[in-house]
Each structure stands twice: as structure tokens, then as C-alpha cells.
Amino acid sequence: MKYYIIAGEASGDLHGANLIASLRKKDTRAKIRAWGGNLMKKQGATLVKHYRDLAFMGFVEVLLHLRTILKNLSFCKKDILKFKPDAIILIDYPGFNMKIAKFAHKHNIKVYYYISPQVWAWKKRRVYTIKEVVDKMLVILPFEKDFYDGYRVDAHYVGHPLLDELSRVKYINRNNFARQNKLNSKKEIIALLPGSRKQEVTRMLGIMLKVVDKFPEYQFVIGCAPSLTEDFYKSLIGNANVQLVFNKTYQLLQVASAALVTSGTATLETALLYVPEVVCYKGNKISYLIAKNLVKVKYISLVNLIMDKPVLKELIQNDLTSENIEAELKQLLTNHKKQRQLLEDYEELRYKLGNAGASNNAATIIVDDLTKKNK
């Protein structure tokens, strides 16, 4: 069968790649075209567009790049009609993917949405469109199934794909990591994860770097996004005493004593690797004000949302200052009671997410459903 998969950022590329691997096990004749990244390409998908050309974040940024986005939408629709897939598989990226879902439904192409838009947080009206144009929602957060059931949407909880990915991470100790990456093996590590999009990293990294000199006994290491270049990072860090590592984020987190993490999937990855963290976020002022009035959730980090309590400290917008980062980081590094409580909460988080197997579960549902249709 023929599958057309669309992911618009680094985490979508990762989960899309794992889904493709599972699809190929269940459908050995699978032909796959994809919007994603190098990981999906590595799994044998024909890459149509790379996510680095798609990642526009925030209301203002989307408006500034509206012509490019509309051009991409037009191209995508033409490419779908030319390829004639049996199924469209959408991975998050709602601004773009919801429009493609409507288009695919109109042309009688099966639509599967793997990793739901956060409709429970904002733009709740989208759930009615999803009910109309998406054949099956394959959700990865426990409360999402209940949410969609309330609207009679065909939703299946498949588990969280990060559990699959993390189960494959090979153990590494700090000495080996330090040696491989030319670090000081005597110093403990603080990880900096400033995001995956260029505009996001540009905004976040400068704030994070302001605390480096406040912790001379630690070494700060940036987990760099694979879609961005070393020269780009070097242009931002200047003379700051930090190190860069590419394609080793999980290894970095394994050996880190604490982390500063830009809000997003990385906050959940960090928690699942049991690393104390501070959640950081600062957006375009106008975009933030619009979002503040639209988003109806108590927290911005997935960890706090899943746990439904403030497990992690969130420093958002005006609260994201070097003074606040320094204070919170000191707490994580020295307050043993806080550290113990975090580990207990992380254990509960893992329990709530359930077992590994999300990619395999999602692929099974898709292939079985399509096979049934074609009989």
C-alpha cells in the first residue's frame, strides 16, 4: 500500500521514522512519501520536503511566512493527488496538517492522525473538524483518549513513542561521554536544550547562557538540533564557556546533573531520563499575548500537564530572567528533598504513560484498517 506522511518538526521526524519502521514490518510492499527529516529518509521514505523549511512558530511568524506556507500547501495537495496514496498519516503540526486532512477527506483518502494537535488546550472547535475529516486519531497521552471519547471521535490510545525511543538508548557513563566529546570528566554537566527551530534557539539560548558564569564548578553542554549548523550555534554563543554536541541529546541527558529545557517534547524526554529540569519559554511578545488569551491550560510543559500538578518549575515570558534561572537551578542542584520528590514524580509519570509499543500499535491499527477496507 501507499502511505503519505507529514511531520513538520524534529520530534515528528523521530516518531515518523519509528512509525515507518513498524509499517514496513507489517506491510512489506509499503511505498512511502514523506514531509519530515533525515530520520524518516533513513527508514526508506521518499522525502518531499524537509521540516527545517516548514517550522514557523508563533502567530506573528506564521503571518510573516504566509506566502511560503500557502505555496507549500498547494504543492503538497498536488503531490498527494499525483502519488495517489491509500492513506495520509499526519503527525502533529496542526496548522498545516488540518488543512491537508480536509483536502484528503474531500478526495476520499483515508486520514490517520498520529500525535494529536493539542485541541484540549486551545482551538477546541477543531475537534469537530477532526470528527468530520479524520478516520482515526492515534493519541499518545492518556487523557487524550477520554477527551476525544467525549466528542465521539474514533480515538485509540497507542502509548507514548518516547518510551520506545528511550528503551533503545545505550547506557553511557559521564567519564566515557566526557572523553568522547572532549569534556572535563571531573566536572558535572548541566544540559542546555534551547529548542529545535532557528528562531526558538536564537531567542532562548542567549537567556540560558547568562547563567553559565554563575556555576563555574559545572560545565554547560548544548544539545544541538540536527537541522541546525555548528556555525549557527557558534554565532550565538560567542565567548561563552559552553560545549556543543550534535545527535547525542539522550546521551547528554543521561550524564547531566540538571537541564534547562525549552518547553516542548524535550521537557518530557528529560523527565523520562530522570534529569532535574527547569522549563524555559519566551516567545514573540505579540504571539505570546495572543496565545495567553487563547490557550486554556494550567501549564505549558507536557510533564505538568500529564501529572496535572506543578512537578517542574516553568519560567515563562517575563519570569524567564537570568536571576530566576539561577535560583531555580541552584535548587535543583542542592535541594535533596526537591530531588527526591522529582524522582518520585518521574516514576509516577512513567506509570501514567503506560508501556512502550506506540509505533507498533499505531502501525497495526493503520494497516489492519486499510486491509479491511481493501477486502
Explain what the structure shows:
With 375 residues, the chain is an alpha/beta fold. It folds into 2 domains: 2-159 and 357-374, Glycogen Phosphorylase B (Rossmann fold), CATH 3.40.50; 167-353, 3-Layer(aba) Sandwich (Rossmann fold), CATH 3.40.50.2000. It is 50% helix and 18% strand. The protein contains 18 helices and 13 strands. It has helices at 10-26, 38-42, 59-64, 66-83, 94-106, 126-133, 142-149, 161-167, 174-180, 198-209, 230-237, 249-255, 265-272, 285-294, 302-307, 322-334, 336-353, 358-374, and strands spanning 2-7, 31-36, 46-50, 87-91, 110-114, 136-139, 155-157, 188-193, 218-224, 242-246, 256-262, 277-281, 313-316. The strands form 2 sheets. The chain has a 7-stranded parallel sheet, with helices on both faces. Helix 2 (38-42) links the parallel strand 2 (31-36) and strand 3. Helix 1 (10-26) packs across helix 18 and helix 4 runs parallel beside helix 5 (94-106). The longest helix is centred in the N-terminal third of the chain and has 18 residues, at 66-83.
CATH superfamily annotation of the largest domain = Glycogen Phosphorylase B
Terminal CA distance reads 13 Å
Q: Based on helices, strands and strand pairing, what is the structural class?
A: alpha/beta
Mean pLDDT: 90
Low-confidence stretches: none
Outline, from the CA principal axes?
A: globular
Helix content: 40-55%
CATH C-level class of the largest domain: Alpha Beta
Arrangement of strands in the largest sheet: 3-2-1-4-5-6-7
Beta-strand percentage?
15-25%
The CATH topology of the largest domain, please? Rossmann fold
What is the strand tally?
13
Q: Tell me what the CATH architecture of the largest domain is.
A: 3-Layer(aba) Sandwich
What count of helical segments does DSSP give?
18
The whole-angstrom Rg is: 21 Å
* Sheet with most strands: 7 strands, parallel
- Number of structural units classed as domains: 2
